[in-house]
Amino acid sequence: MIAVPVPVLLYHCVSPDPSSWIAPFTVTAHCLDRHLALIGTAGRTPVTVSQLRDGLSGAGPLPTRPVVVTFDDGFADTLTAAAPVLHRHHVRSTIYLTTGFIDGVSPGGDRMLDWAQARELADRGHEIGAHSVTHPQLDQLSRARARHEIQSSREMLQERLDVLVRSFAYPHGYSSPAVRRQVMEAGYDSACSVKNVVSGASDTPFSISRLTVTADLSDDTVRRWLDGSAPTRRRDERLLTKGWRSYRRLRHIATLSGGRS
Ligand SMILES: [Zn+2]
Predict the structure, then answer these.
(1) Quick check: is 1 in a domain?
(2) How far, in Å, CA of 79 to CA of 198, rounded?
(3) What does pTM read for this prediction?
(4) Ligand 1: distance of its center to the CA of 166 in Å?
(5) Tell me, what CATH number does 198's domain have?
(6) Domain span at residue 56?
């Protein structure tokens, strides 16, 4: 029996010296180290987003008390500062890359990953997900532009990194029914949003809730998240796995009826 809700943590920059642009969402490597130690204390087992997705939909095994660690945007310190700490704690994370940021700097001047560094993260066992090309608010774009952001980022990551990209993260957390449908049509089988609640019954594989880690977050709050006592629609928890299973059946039927070509 899987203990739900499942905390899905969202990190951005891991640096002692971030630009003011990303500083509110930055932690130090020492802070990340403390959080990952708390995961161990809470008896949680880290899994990737795709492992969570497979487990909840009945397509794969899942530990009794899972937790997911994710990183967004692709800061260079995901490799240089975060990865050594993750490795020490045996955590495989899911890293969502904005392809247009690769080889560049953030709007605040923070160094972003280059392609070789992104490849190294994949080689170290981290899951690579897509986070669009230019980080727009997808629900504000035309269908054609949204499709480009969603599809091209996946194709480019798959081609350049030689990995299967299964998961998408909505830039700024924003999506809409149309955007979620486009993500599904582009071949992803899960997507993460940001609701700052523990992933629970109202989630589908295309709206996995995440908890944003901020610079001023207390260890007590992290402890509460990991205990499962953070905000969620708790009375519906038992429906979580049931919801995912019925979703999987629906998708299977949709695939069968649409899979003629
Ligand atoms: Zn982002």
Answers:
(1) no
(2) 26
(3) 0.87
(4) 17
(5) 3.20.20.370
(6) 8-258
